Amino acid sequence: MTAITADAELILPAPAKLNLMLHILGRREDGYHELQTLFQFLDHGDELGFAVRQDGQIRLHSAVPGVPHDSNLIVRAARSLQEASGTRLGADIWLDKRLPMGGGIGGGSSDAATTLVGLDHLWDTRLGEDRLAELGLRLGADVPVFVRGRAAFAEGVGERLQPVTLEEPWFLVAVPQVFVSTAEIFSDPELTRDTPPIKVRSLLEGGGRNDCQPVVEKRYPEVHNALILLNKFVSARLTGTGACIFGSFPNRADADKVARQLPGSLPSFVAQGRNISMLHRKLQARAKK
Fold it and tell me: 10-residue block means of pLDDT along the chain (289 residues)?
């Protein structure tokens, strides 16, 4: 992927997330699903660079295979901010893509959120977090949690967020080499859609599962086999609709030790869970200078 050029005026992270649990409560009349999930960020992700243009054009200089320029969530996020704010400024944008597509760790949604937050800062549009989250929701259900940047218990389609403080363990995230279609999983007739709602307090005391996991395992043997393998070392589960799977560890050394025992055919990375996203940490540090 294209490296971020020295022309970038602002370089920001677009962190990964994990769904530590994901319950499907039912299907709404509009086709979306009511769910409950627990989001936590990782200190690992994509990186974006931004520079202001005076001609109003939005140009993403890093091509993403299979995604046309104007369909990319980054470009759509930038244009939605332009429209909402009325600014005449544009942007050159560069993407250093590190997160897998179709992995369930929020790559595209996080890129879109970093674009909204970053350009709101660079263009000085000052729309505020609530408005940016509203714009983000139009782009995808996971975008608002990245805009707000705090670990959260989410309800609705994932847009009703209640900040939570979680332990920040180390995670080993394995990346089966398949692209999982979220729409395909949510339309599967075998998906559990009647899990009873739970309170965040009982969730934080332990429990929860991923209702999408049985469907994904059945459809994608690569995910099923990776879970069998990782479960030999640690309790493993799917994040989102996958394909990525994860297990938690009390320290980095333990996570690294297991990572070294995984086969080369199953790529992985180790990262720490974060209750405040690396995007917001970077902007807070920048504001203090």
Answer: 80 97 90 91 98 98 92 97 98 96 93 98 97 96 96 91 96 96 93 91 79 97 98 96 96 98 97 98 88
Residue given tokens 């699903």 in the structure block = 33
Which residues sit opposite 91 in a β-bridge? 52, 58
Domain boundary assignment for the chain: 10-164+282-288, 170-274
Q: What is the pLDDT of residue 201?
A: 81
Whether 17 is catalytic is yes
Q: Rounded to two decimals, what is the model's pTM?
A: 0.95
Has domain 10-164+282-288 been given CATH number 3.30.230.10? yes
The pLDDT assigned to 2 comes to: 58
Identify the active-site residue in 17, 111, 120, 211: 17
Same topology between domain 10-164+282-288 and domain 170-274: no
Catalytic residue among 46, 120, 142, 211: 142
Burial class (CB in 10 A: 0-12, 13-18, 19+), 200: middle
Q: Is residue 257 among the annotated active site residues?
A: no
Sequence-separated (6 or more) residues with CB below 8 Å from residue 10: 49, 50, 51, 118, 121, 122
- Copy the structure tokens of residue 61: 């200089």
Assign domain 170-274 one CATH number from 3.30.70.890, 3.80.30.20, 3.40.50.300, 3.30.565.10. Answer: 3.30.70.890
